[in-house]
Specification:
alpha+beta; Maf protein; 8-stranded mixed sheet; globular
Length: 215
């Protein structure tokens, strides 16, 4: 567990009542939860990320990946609640082309390919989440879906954005909260879901399970 660390706690509307571990090294997920006022231990998962199964729905795939990450860390923290998440970008089927699930780009060329596919089109951002509770074999898994409409960007604009390096570790090769904000025309649904975690939905489940409370 040498890769685990504690996140900084900020003033927020909530406080943690039980030990909570985030099974992710994403600074975006960490900051979103910390902004609620939650004290977290961070332990990134080393679970593999296999491709979707034949016929597997995108939401089911995202939840399966979140579950794999959560269980990978939960075995190390059996007395704590563990939250894992996985975000994917889904380009719906059109003009005879099948739907495509876009994860993180493998390199700059792959990032440019993804951004070119998304340019001027509407896609879905799906975050699957999984919460493991101490002493309980049943895992709480859920997924949030947000529709994102992208502006039509030129190849020069996309290439310049890729050159900034920001797309490297982002699903769909863009960050709505960062330099890639210019790519997005509008969002229908949870904004934080596009950033990497559906905060309102996560807070609801953490409250329901008695893991957090209002200050």
């Amino acid at each position: 567990m040498t890769n685990a660390y504690l996140s900084d706690v900020t003033e927020g509307a909530f406080r943690t009542l039980s030990a909570l571990v985030l099974a992710s090294n994403s600074p975006r997920r960490r900051d979103l939860l910390a902004a609620l006022g939650l004290a977290l231990e961070i332990c990134p998962s080393n679970a593999p990320e296999p491709p979707p199964l034949p016929g597997e729905e995108p939401s089911a795939y995202a939840m399966r990946m979140a579950r794999l990450k959560t269980l990978d860390v939960a075995v190390l923290y059996q007395d704590c609640a563990v939250l894992g998440a996985d975000t994917i970008v889904v380009l719906p089927a059109s003009a005879g082309e099948p739907a495509q699930i876009l994860g993180k780009p493998t390199d700059e060329a792959d990032a440019l390919r993804m951004l070119t596919l998304l340019s001027g089109r509407t896609h879905q951002v799906i975050t699957g989440c999984c919460l493991a509770l101490p002493g309980q074999e049943e895992r709480l898994c859920f997924a949030e879906v947000t529709e994102v409409v992208m502006r039509a960007s030129t190849r020069e604009e996309l290439s310049a954005y890729v050159a900034t390096g920001e797309p490297a570790d982002k699903a769909g090769a863009y960050a709505i909260q960062g330099l890639g904000a210019f790519l997005v025309e509008r969002v229908a649904g949870s904004y934080t879901n596009v950033v990497g975690l559906p905060v309102a939905e996560c807070a609801r489940h953490l409250l329901d399970k008695g893991l957090i409370a209002a200050r």
